[in-house]
Write a structure and sequence with these properties.
Number of strands: 0
Helix content: over 70%
Shape: elongated
Mean pLDDT: 93
Oligomer: single chain
Number of helices: 9
Distance between the termini: 46 Å
Largest sheet: none
Strand content: under 5%
Structural class: mainly alpha
Length: about 190
């Protein structure tokens, strides 16, 4: 069975996620996103009448759902398998992009929002991080970790992986991922044995 070709809207959202992961939100424009996605500029404004924030929000949600699908699947084999899959997912992105891309969820999170406003993309990033933490914490609890420890360790995993991706880009090396993987795996094993 062949997979249907992505729609123009889907290509634009995926293109925005890719550009945000490389340049950050502030350096990503609607015009460049349309060009990157090989979509007419007019269709971009048609699908995203609220502009860049709407598009960025969809890009963050797309990335969040994509990573969550992988996590859910791999966490069926336990939290160590889930950790490995989460790290491998980001390793693939940094290596395949020659250390030029990271996580668009993180990119949106670290840019300064307009004064007196919480942009929808930032709120979506918070939701994505919460979902990833919830998936990891649930697996840790299912495998014997105490609830509070599971929640704290899940936060540590997400934070460490996101920070490690940034370090990989800066160092142009996957060594930070390897070091982080070893330590997080040891913490998970200790938490589920107790």
């Amino acid at each position: 069975m062949t997979k249907p070709s992505p729609t123009a809207r889907e290509r634009i959202v995926a293109g925005a996620a890719d550009m945000i992961s490389r340049r950050g939100l502030n350096a990503t424009s609607i015009r460049e996103t349309a060009k990157h996605a090989r979509a007419p500029l007019g269709s971009t404004y048609h699908y995203f009448p609220e502009g860049k924030q709407q598009l960025a929000t969809e890009a963050v949600r797309l990335t969040g759902a994509w990573a969550a699908r992988s996590l859910r699947k791999e966490l069926e084999a336990g939290p160590v398998a889930g950790l490995r899959a989460f790290l491998d997912l980001w390793r693939g992105i940094v290596v395949d992009s020659d250390f030029g891309a990271g996580c668009p969820v993180l990119a949106v999170s670290i840019e300064e929002p307009p004064a007196d406003e919480t942009p929808t993309a930032l709120a979506a990033a918070a939701e994505v991080f919460t979902e990833w933490e919830g998936l990891l914490a649930g697996s840790l609890r299912e495998h014997g970790a105490e609830p509070e420890q599971a929640a704290q360790l899940a936060t540590l995993i997400v934070a460490a992986v996101e920070g490690t991706v940034a370090m990989c880009r800066a160092k142009r090396s996957t060594q930070p991922l390897d070091h982080t993987a070893a330590q997080l795996q040891a913490l998970i094993v200790a938490a589920i044995r107790d």
